[in-house]
Each structure stands twice: as structure tokens, then as C-alpha cells.
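Design job #97: recover the sequence.
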């Protein structure tokens, strides 16, 4: 890493920390830890007053995916001699410059990326326990598999509050991580990176005081969809005990590309834009793309992503062996307990700055399946969500579009995967984060948008954040939420202390769909029992619209059978008539 970058990053890092009176670097206090690949040195920070957390940043968990390793499975990192400093935030994996806004929603001004990016950050609380092995949470960041980075949130406050080890990491994104084109160019490299990170944790976390048999994985948004595939993939078996899907699902339209021909066509077009004219030879395409600068690759948009919201994994026969529905029914599940959740207003994030958009099929901005039914389905969606009591109210129509987006992209698929898992286990839990901060300066109609719960999970009300102000009530809600989370990481059963009461979650099952709502009242965090999240809307997306597709396909099949029957009858009659005519002609001649 260049010295100039190191100095600038360290200066900015220290400046941010010095603004925060609740989080301070402990002067010249370092800790050393071993790994299978060499020794590392991390720094110590004090958080939540007097608690101390060891921070080990930029630990390589795989070899740099550059040169011949681009578009290949991750390989183990090289060993090093001496002690490696693990003090600075690693560069993010390459992503389009158009999407830095997502990173900046979490870490303003961070813009450093590099293809050499497969690093993780480990946060270890100093608990004072003698030989106790701590539970471990591994966070998989969101960002549509196109943008983001592990270090969008520090893990030290969550680690200190819950007395668990927190791990976050980078994985290959966008075309470098998810371009695919059949068996010779299988894709899913970002998922392979995630599995490599989990493998590293399994083999090294004991050096940090962690228990490799008590690892929980958690992903947000597209990261939650990825967690769903880890639950179902044989390549992730044995790497974790519990799993959490936070505002994302592997059953969403955007979560998986199943059509190999579409993938090959899109990859071919992508390669041609970079001067790789290789016809249908996908091996040559991969080799050609390995010679291009990563900056050039990132300037070209990979054209295909199901549902328009994600760079999707593919059915490669290795990591993902079949379609999600079949896997959820038949595959061996990795993990012993699962949790899924949503926020109260998932879709409003995508409507910020678009308050004048009209509720029309063109402006829905969603994929609604079979193109033969696009017009019918779009009209049904609008009919279902239009504010009929005040149909010309612009704010109400914007909220309706936000609800369409949130319900179709996040809420309905998360409930769907929860129901499917509940058929196979009684250790499935569900929550909804409904808390809207009184200090929020966002428009009231935005409510609790997609991703807002992350700031409370990672303790931003305690550590502070450059983009948000927080109140004492925010801190109490954050505490309740963190305790709920870390208890699940430790035991596979979410629970939290609210006032003097210990609240235990009831499990989610397909009929009652019991779930817990996290909120705040009169300065305190609260957890209340509820049933069936957004039942009408979930039924609409998960049952009504799929039935429309099914009936259309059934009618088409019946119509096709009838049509071919008529064709066959017509051909038979034609042949018979021709034979009769020929017979009569021959008879007349004789």
C-alpha cells in the first residue's frame, strides 16, 4: 500500500475517531495473534466507556485474485515471515464508480478500491475470561453483489456489548465476482470467496479466543440471499452453526440466474465491449478478460441481472446445485438454527429523491416475471396498491410505489424463505425492526427504510456516526437489538433484556407466523409479539401473482395441445382428401 495512501487513511481514521468521545484508541497498546499463515499485530480500542476491543484489520484470507487467479476459485494466502501489521482498513473490492454512494451511506469519503481486496477484519473483546471460547459472528455485507465492503461498519461496539468476536470481510463484486458463462466460466466467485472466508475463520479463529463450533453467519440484503445459498450449499458444510438472513432471501427474483444461455449471451456481449471477440468459446473469453485492466472491466456494465436489483449467482452445479425452491425442499441444510428479518418500510430507500414519480407500470421499476403477463400483472399491482381513498395524493402514491418495491423485492421473499425453512425445522425465528428515531431528519414517509437496522445492530448510537444524530432512546433500542442478536449467535435462540424482563422469541411457523417487533417507547427499547407480517401483501406476491402465471401456462399448454390436435386432424383430412382425389383421377383414366 503506497505510503501516501497509508498516511492519508490513518489521518482520516484518527480524525473520525477523535470526534467520538465514546470510542478511543488506547495509546500504543497493541496485541499480537498467530494465524496459520503468520503472526499479526492489531491495535486496541476502548468502547462503551471502559471496555476494550482488539482490532485486526486487513488480514488476508485468500491470495490476491489477480492475473491468472482472476475469474478462478480463491486460493489460500501465502505465508509471511515476521509480524504483519493489521492496523488499517483494507481497500474495497472493485466496483463501479457510480455506486460509491452506497459505501458513503456508511463510511463517507472512503473511495479506495483494488483488485487485491480479499481481506477480513476481526474484532475481539477483552472479556477478562480465562479460558472461555467466545462465539463468533461473521457478517456478509450487502450491496446487490455489486458494491459495498466489509468495513462499512466497525464491529467493535457489537463485539464489546455482546462479548462475541465479530468478523467482516470483502468478497469479489460485480462482473469480477459474478460474471458467468457455462461450465468453462462458471462464475459464483464472490460466493466462493465467502466460503473461503468462512473456512479461514473455522481454521484460525481459535487463535483469537473464538470457538470454531459456535460460528454464526449473517448477511444483509444481497448478502442475506448469499447466506441462503450457504445454508443450502455442500461447499459451506461445517463452517457455521447458525445463520441469519437480514432483509434478503435466496428465493427472491433477483437472487439467482438459472438460464445458462442468457448468462453466456450476456457474457459474450460483455466481452465484446472489451475487445474480446471469442465467439462462443467461453474459455477463450475468460482468458482474454484476464488480460484487461480491472478498471476497464469495471467501466463496462454486465447487462443481465434478474429482478434488476442484484448481480446474481448462477446454478453452477457445484456451489449452487439446483434451483432454490428444490434445494429448500430437498437439500441437506447447513446450520442448526436460523433467523430472518425485515424493516418496517423496506422500499422507501429506493424512493428517496424520487418523490414526484407517478404510480404507473413504467415507473414500478420491478421485474414481475413472465413477459406474457406483464401488462396484466402491472395493472393488478397498481390496483392492489393504489391509494383509492386519495388516488391523486402525490405523497400517498410515492408511498405506494415504495411499498410495491419493498414488498416484492424484500418482504414477500423473506417471508417465503422463512415459511419454507419452517417446514423443515422448528428453530426458525423472525423479527421486524420498526423503530423510527425521533432524531431522524429524513422525511416522515420514509419510516424505517432498508438497511436502517444495521446502524443499530453495529452500535452507531453509542459510537456516533457522521451522518446521523442519536438520542438516549436510540441507544436503548440499539442495546436491545444487539443483545437479541448476540444471544442468538451464542445459543441459536434470540432473546433480549427489556427493562427488568428477559424476552425470549417464539419460533416462526407457517400457519401463525409468529414474529417479534423491535421498537422504542418512552425512551426504552421494546420487543412485542406479532403475527403474519404484512399478510395481504405477502399473499399477493407469493400466491396470487404466481397463480396467474401458473394458470396462463396451463391454458397455454392446453391450447397448445388442442392446437396440435387440430393440426394433426387437418393434416389427416388433407391426406385423405388427396388420396381420394388421386383415386378418382386414376379411376377416370382407366
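Job complete. Output follows.
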Amino acid at each position: 500500500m503506497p505510503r501516501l495512501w497509508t498516511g492519508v487513511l490513518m489521518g482520516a481514521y484518527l480524525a473520525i475517531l477523535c470526534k467520538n468521545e465514546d470510542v478511543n484508541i488506547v495509546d500504543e497498546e497493541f496485541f499480537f495473534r498467530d494465524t496459520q499463515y503468520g503472526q499479526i499485530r492489531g491495535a486496541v480500542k476502548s468502547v462503551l466507556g471502559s471496555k476494550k476491543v482488539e482490532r485486526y484489520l486487513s488480514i488476508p484470507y485468500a491470495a490476491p485474485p489477480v492475473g491468472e487467479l482472476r475469474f478462478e476459485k480463491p486460493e489460500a494466502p501465502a505465508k509471511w515471515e515476521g509480524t504483519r501489521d493489521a492496523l488499517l482498513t483494507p481497500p474495497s473490492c472493485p466496483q463501479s464508480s457510480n455506486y460509491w454512494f452506497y459505501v458513503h451511506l456508511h463510511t463517507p469519503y472512503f473511495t479506495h478500491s483494488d483488485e487485491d481486496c480479499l481481506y477480513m477484519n476481526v474484532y475481539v473483546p477483552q472479556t477478562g475470561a480465562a479460558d472461555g471460547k467466545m462465539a463468533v459472528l461473521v457478517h456478509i455485507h450487502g450491496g446487490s453483489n455489486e458494491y459495498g465492503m466489509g468495513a462499512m461498519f466497525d464491529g467493535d461496539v457489537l463485539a464489546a456489548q455482546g462479548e462475541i468476536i465479530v468478523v467482516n470481510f470483502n468478497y469479489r463484486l460485480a462482473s469480477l465476482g459474478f460474471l458467468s458463462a457455462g461450465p468453462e466460466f462458471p462464475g459464483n466467485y464472490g460466493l466462493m470467496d465467502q466460503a473461503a472466508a468462512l473456512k479461514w475463520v473455522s481454521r484460525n479463529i481459535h487463535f483469537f479466543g473464538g470457538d470454531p463450533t459456535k460460528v454464526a453467519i449473517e448477511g444483509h440484503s444481497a448478502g442475506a440471499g448469499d447466506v441462503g445459498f450457504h445454508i443450502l450449499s455442500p461447499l459451506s458444510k461445517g463452517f457455521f452453526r447458525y445463520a441469519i438472513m437480514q432483509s434478503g432471501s435466496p428465493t427472491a427474483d433477483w437472487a439467482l440466474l438459472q438460464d445458462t444461455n442468457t448468462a453466456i449471451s450476456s457474457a459474450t456481449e460483455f466481452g465484446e465491449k472489451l475487445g474480446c471477440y471469442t465467439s462462443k468459446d467461453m474459455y477463450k473469453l475468460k482468458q482474454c478478460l484476464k488480460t484487461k485492466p480491472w478498471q476497464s472491466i469495471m467501466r463496462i456494465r454486465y447487462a443481465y441481472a434478474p429482478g434488476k436489483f442484484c448481480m446474481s449467482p448462477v446454478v453452477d452445479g457445484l456451489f449452487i446445485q439446483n434451483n432454490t425452491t428444490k434445494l429448500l425442499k430437498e437439500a441437506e441444510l447447513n446450520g442448526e438454527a436460523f433467523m430472518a428479518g425485515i424493516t418496517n418500510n423496506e422500499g422507501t430507500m429506493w424512493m428517496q429523491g424520487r418523490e414526484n414519480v407517478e404510480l404507473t407500470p413504467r415507473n414500478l421499476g420491478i421485474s414481475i416475471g413472465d413477459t406474457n403477463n406483464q401488462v396484466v400483472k402491472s395493472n393488478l399491482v397498481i390496483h392492489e396498491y393504489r391509494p383509492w381513498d386519495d388516488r391523486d395524493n402525490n405523497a400517498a402514491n410515492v408511498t405506494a410505489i415504495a411499498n410495491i418495491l419493498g414488498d416484492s423485492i424484500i418482504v414477500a421473499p423473506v417471508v417465503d424463505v422463512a415459511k419454507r425453512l419452517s417446514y423443515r425445522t422448528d428453530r426458525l425465528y423472525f423479527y421486524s425492526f420498526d423503530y423510527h428515531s425521533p432524531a431522524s431528519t429524513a422525511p416522515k414517509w420514509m419510516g424505517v427504510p432498508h438497511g436502517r437496522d444495521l446502524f443499530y445492530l453495529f452500535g452507531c448510537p453509542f459510537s456516533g456516526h457522521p451522518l446521523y444524530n442519536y438520542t438516549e432512546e436510540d441507544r436503548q433500542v440499539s442495546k436491545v437489538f444487539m443483545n437479541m442478536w448476540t444471544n442468538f449467535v451464542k445459543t441459536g435462540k434470540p432473546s433480549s433484556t427489556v427493562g427488568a424482563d428477559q424476552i425470549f422469541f417464539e419460533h416462526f411457523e407457517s400457519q401463525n407466523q409468529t414474529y417479534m417487533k423491535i421498537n422504542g417507547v418512552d425512551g426504552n427499547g421494546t420487543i412485542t409479539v406479532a403475527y403474519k407480517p404484512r399478510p395481504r401483501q405477502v399473499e399477493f406476491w407469493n400466491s396470487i401473482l404466481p397463480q396467474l402465471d401458473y394458470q396462463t401456462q396451463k391454458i397455454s399448454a392446453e391450447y397448445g395441445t388442442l392446437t396440435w390436435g387440430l393440426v394433426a386432424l387437418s393434416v389427416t383430412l388433407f391426406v385423405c382428401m388427396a388420396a381420394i382425389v388421386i383415386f378418382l383421377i386414376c379411376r377416370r383414366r382407366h
